[in-house]
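Hey,
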Amino acid sequence: MKKTSAHPGSEENPGFLLWQVSTLWSKSTTTALKPLGLTHPQFIILATIDWLKGKGASQEEIGRRIVLDPKVTSHLLRSLEVKKLIELPLSTNEGGRYPQLTTAGAEVLARALLVVESADAAFFAPIDLKSSQIVTTLQMLACANFSESAEEQPCID
């Protein structure tokens, strides 16, 4: 049988390893958020709205920032609005709407941040994040592969 991969095995394939680790990390985060009634993507949306507050980030800008399809972003925003965690001010242009956290949304996000940071600490405990290059490496990959159409790329200086 002819070998088709450039890698001796999956344990040396960076794409497979990234998939495997990101799936395990996502499951860890999803499990941690479940008692709060949030999905992982809903948490990411809430955190992004908070990070971008004061900048007037539209639905479209939020979707680009977190690399989600506009329809998925819109669906997630509506689900958070139904839960009364965000407000979506009325606008004639849906993509131009600027989501804002409600008081309840800010409270849930504060609890969720503690839960997610605790889950992250446990997940990443096997490596020393301060001396590891993992964050820098992930930033470099995000910067190199982020859509050129996005106004604010997640690039390091």
